[in-house]
Amino acid sequence: MSSTADSSPAHNTGALSRLLATDPAVQPDEGPETLLSAVLDAASDGIIVLSPDNRVLTYNDRFVEIWDIPRTTLMTRDERQVVAALIKNLIEPAEFLNHLDTMMADHDARAHGRCRLTDGRVIEHETRPVSVLNRLIGRVWTFRDITTRVRAFELLHESEERFRIFADSAVYGIVMHQEDEIVYANEAAARDLGYNVGELLGMSVMSFIIEEKRVDMAQRAAAQLAGTVPSLNHYETQIRRKDGEVRLVEVSVSSINLINKNTVVMTL
Question: Which of these, 14, 23, 26, lies nearest to 59 by C-alpha position?
């Protein structure tokens, strides 16, 4: 992506002055307007306001940073020129243009979405009408760079997929539960317990521990989550299969954080 925004003539009069002044070089007097202008330009979201008659009413500095649009283009106040510069950065410009046309045609519409830029960034956008003294003056668009959050989620998903592939192929049983409810079981665990995998999901993990061992099991799980025992704890217990048969098994218990929830992992 080019860096023409930095080489364009300075236009740092502040977001609010761009809206209030006919001459963009004119600064508002010191007071509430100056403070509000500074707040808008300090916002972490990029902001631009478009009028119903295809003019750029105002924008903040973060909008320029996110989209890398030349300030000379923004100074024309021509929405079409700004949009043309904006969509050059998009992987799927037609989709965003359709969204833009739909929103500008409906004065009351509010919507949000996301788009991917050609440099790999992911931008979340939101739009809503804006009125002053009950008079519609245009539509405000806000843009937020969520690339870090999206990539973190994708990495987490990839990690979970790798774990699932490993666990599904394991020859020993693996059961994961959150707050006593089974959220994952592999085929080996289902076979050992006499159930199919679908039957185990949602069951209480205590349902296959014999009654005499349930208190001990609950205490061990709580200690794992509290971190008061070794990260991997081995012990023997007795399980009751679906057909009623009781078996003595060696269990390993550990805890992980899965999708922001503490999860106990048991291997049989």
Answer: 14
One digit per residue, the tens of pLDDT, for the chain of length 268 reads 333 333 433 344 455 545 544 444 544 454 445 556 666 777 789 999 899 888 998 888 899 999 998 989 998 999 999 999 999 999 999 999 998 888 888 888 899 899 999 999 999 999 999 887 888 888 999 999 999 888 877 776 777 777 778 888 888 888 888 888 898 898 999 999 999 999 999 999 888 889 988 888 888 777 766 766 655 567 788 889 999 999 988 888 777 766 556 676 778 7
Q: Model pTM?
A: 0.55
**Dihedral, CA atoms, 202, 205, 211, 216, nearest 10 degrees?**
-150
In whole angstroms, what is the distance from residue 47 CA to residue 49 CA?
7
Backbone angles phi, psi at 196, to 5 degrees: -95, 165
Residue 38 CA to residue 60 CA, distance in Å, equals: 9
Helix 93-105 and helix 79-87: axis angle, to 10°?
150
Taking a C-beta distance cutoff of 8 angstroms, is the pair 8, 28 a contact? no
Gap between the Cα atoms of 242 and 128, Å rounded: 56
